Amino acid sequence: METGRRPRGTLEQEVVAALAASARSMTPAEVRDQLGADLAYTTVMTVLARLSEKGLVTRKRVGRAYAYTAIRDEAELTARQMQKLLDAGDDRAAVLSRFVGTLTDEDERLLVDLLHHAEGDDQP
Amino acid sequence: MTVPLLITLSVMLTFALVGPLLARGLPPAVATRLLVPASLVVGVCAAWALLIVGFTWVAQLGPVSRYGDWSPEQLRQDTPFPTIIAVGCGLVAVGSVTQASVVGTRRIRRMLAVRHACGPLGEPGSLVVLDDDRPDAFATPGAGGRIVVTTGLLRALTAAERRALIAHEKAHLTHRHAWWLLATEVAAAANPLLRPTAAAIEHAVERWADEDAAREVTDRRLVARTLARTALLTRAATVPATGLAAAGGDVPCRVRALLAPPPRPRILPLTVLLALLTTCTVAAGTVQHRGDQLLDRAGATPTGEPPIHHHRHHLP
Q: Can you give the pLDDT at residue B42?
């Protein structure tokens, strides 16, 4: 599949997301395999080094390479408070843009159909 | 003066009725960029015209007429509006302006509060991962806002889907969607008739971010699948539904739009919009002009005093 070029900064976020989604630490090769073969190994290395400098990921030596893990810090307390506002249907949360809204039963049924349709068409 | 007032109000009504249709007939970015200012213009024109009609009564009051140097009797005789109509129009206009300021101020204050709270959350525009099993994702307001995603959602999505999700939230930040939504809410607060249009604009803003994400990952179907899967995952995790009115609504509609080809700009909605805006502005301008003339006439023949120099009195 052809993938578009990533704007600056987006790759960093994708790498953080990949590390956060993983149950264990990942080597640069594993990160690259997940994000797409169009990325150069050195690009992934550079991004990981930069994230490490910023203190967003930690690394430990595994054999000849480093393995990286995402760091969670106390700053997420704020994010959690905002999420609580969203969950409570708090009026103050109106300034936050949620990715998906809540679904009705009808919406759910429709979405399952649409998803089948979308995935069915994906088959060659 | 009655005719331009009625024209202004009927254009406002027409816009309120066709606004949602126009929003659907245009590509979402174009719809947002045009309909938000259009709502504001139409709202301001209607409020301004009503304010001027209200002023034809206020101008008859003793102190005001002395200050403006015009004759209240002459004005009472000349004005086409009965007191009750003029007072009603004035009250509606004042109420509309008040409501808009209250809602606008409250929303700006909230945006600033969230922005302030974001201080310790990484650097501006960064991704904040929330260690939580429930799938959820949202963006905080402003170009330097943060993208917050839970580990629950990150784990459930593939790398490609995560990329689509990040691209969508990033679009909210890059295009400063919070400010467009603020303007929309102010317009709807000033004029409740514009609420359906405001809802259509909110939907267009989400679609705008979807289209942006589709362009970045060059795969509309991937974005559609990410949306559908996230919505279903979120639903599964939050049963029983709390019934809250959340943003990012009407997911099936967004998914369907992504499964269809990208929208193209069309001439008809643009023409309709342009015609409405021109008529509204000209009509509201005419109301003001007639109001000026009314006061000029009343000022040119002050009762019981020798005529003074003819000069125009302008409305506030």
A: 95
Which residues of B are less than 8 Å from A56 in CB distance? 122
Q: Taking the CA of residue A21 as centre, how many other CA atoms within 13 Å lie in the half-sphere pointing to its CB?
A: 24
Q: Which amino acid is at B201?
A: I
Please give the ipTM for the structure prediction. 0.85
For residue B228, give the chain A residue with the closest CA. Answer: A111
pTM of the model: 0.87
A124 touches chain B (CB under 8 A): no
Of the candidates A4, A82, A97, the beta carbon closest to that of B218 is on A4
Provide the pairing of β-strand B127-130 with A65-70.
unpaired
Instruction: Look at residues B188, B189, B209, B205 and name the one whose alpha carbon lies nearest to residue B197.
Output: B188
Look at residue B307 and give its three-state secondary structure. Answer: coil
Stretch A83-92: mean pLDDT = 80
Where are the strands (E) in A71-120, listed by range? 97-98
Q: Which of A90, A97, A107 to substitute to test the interface with B, most B CBs within 10 Å?
A: A97
Q: How far is A31 from chain B (nearest CA, A)?
A: 10
List, in order, residues 6 or more apart from A60 with CB less than 8 Å away: A25, A66, A67, A69
| Predicted confidence (pLDDT) at residue A4 exceeds the cutoff of 80 | no
B152 vs B87: CA distance, rounded Å: 58
What whole-number distance in Å separates Cα of residue B189 and Cα of residue A28? 52
- Quick check: B109 contacting A, CB < 8 Å? no
Bridge partners for A61 per DSSP: A66
Instruction: Say yes or no: B239 contacts chain A, CB-CB below 8 A.
Output: no
